[in-house]
Amino acid sequence: MSEPVLEIRNLNVDYGLGEQAVHAVRDVNLTLHRGEVLGLAGESGSGKSTLAYGLTRLLAPPGVITGGEVVYHPEQGEAYDVLALSDRGLREFRWAETAIVFQGAMNSLNPVHKISTQLGDVLAAHEPTMSAHSRQARCREMLKLVGISPDRMDAYPHQLSGGMRQRVMIGMALILQPQVVIMDEPTTALDVVMQRQILGQLIELRERLGFSVIFITHDLSLLVEFSNRIAIMYGGRIVEEAPAASLYRDSLHPYSAGLLSSFPALRGPRRELTGIPGSPPDLKGMPSGCSFHPRCPKVFEPCAGNIPVLGRPTTPDGASRSVACWLHPVVESVG
């Protein structure tokens, strides 16, 4: 495994304060390695987007980080905690070191400004000594890199298709050559053909430029195809993490198995889609013990009373994966 570029350690995020606070992210530990694609999957409301906004300190009120560290390892220099950065340090960190492509990103472009203006503003803010000519050249280069003709530089967003607007947003995220790109369900509003085209191009760009990706989606089939590793979230916690092939072939947590049975098999014979009965838990009143136990088909005696610890299972490939489930004893906790 390559060296880490981003380490999330015991991160906790709440909405609100005091007894009425909603615990949206609970003791999350994740490591993103240099050059890899880490998928983050789970149903709506599981805490995926909150985790992304928390680690970049983009939480809108009343969201608040109540504990943990987000340690960034730059290519040169000492590692540092993003949560301890000053306002100035945070401005230098965002977009230059870590960029994010938001949900509904193709609608995030300003409709009254040309594409060239919006791409150029990123360069003007972070590289003020760059000449106007150099900014234009960089913008043209970036559009070409994401598969858009530089002739569309002076187009307005409404003159581009949805897929082209999405590519512009990816180009904007990459224009300063960050080490980490967080993609929060960036292809949800696109048809499946355009999804595959954009994701295929993203993987090609990652191989060429060497950045790391945290890819957030509720569509596990996309992650199995495009990710190196996958982490599954439920009720604000990581319940399983494994290499993508291992998770698809042999998921350990019943929730992961339920997600996998909710989409058609990528290969082989047809199988019945079963899904997961019930609904995700209300974060204001979480079940006792394992938060998945009210919906779990394999629930047994300890599940309702005790929260399982995320750790390395006693399986042959246990060193490369982790799970939080009473069905699988762990030999080493994670975090």
Summary tags:
alpha/beta; globular; Rossmann fold; 2 domains; 27% helix; 9 helices; seven-stranded mixed β-sheet; 13 strands; 335 residues; four-stranded antiparallel β-sheet
Helices and strands, in order, run as EEEHEEHEHHHEHEHEEHHEEE
The number of E-state strands comes to 13
**What can be said about the biggest beta sheet?**
7 strands, mixed
CATH architecture of the largest domain: 3-Layer(aba) Sandwich
- Distance N terminus to C terminus? 18 Å
**Which CATH first-tier class of the largest domain would you pick?**
Alpha Beta
Strand order of the largest sheet: 6-7-8-3-9-10-12
Helix content: 25-40%
H/I helix tally: 9
Supply the number of structural domains. 2
Per DSSP, what share of the residues sits in E-state strands of 2 or more residues?
A: 15-25%
Question: Would you write up a description of this structure?
Answer:
The structure is a single chain. The protein has two domains: 4-97 and 178-279, Rossmann fold, CATH 3.40.50.300; 109-177, no CATH class. It is globular, with a radius of gyration of 21 Å. The mean pLDDT is 90. The strands form three sheets. A seven-stranded mixed β-sheet has the order 6-7-8-3-9-10-12, with helices on both faces. By secondary structure, the protein is α/β, with parallel strands linked by helices. The protein is built from nine helices and 13 strands. The two termini are 18 Å apart.
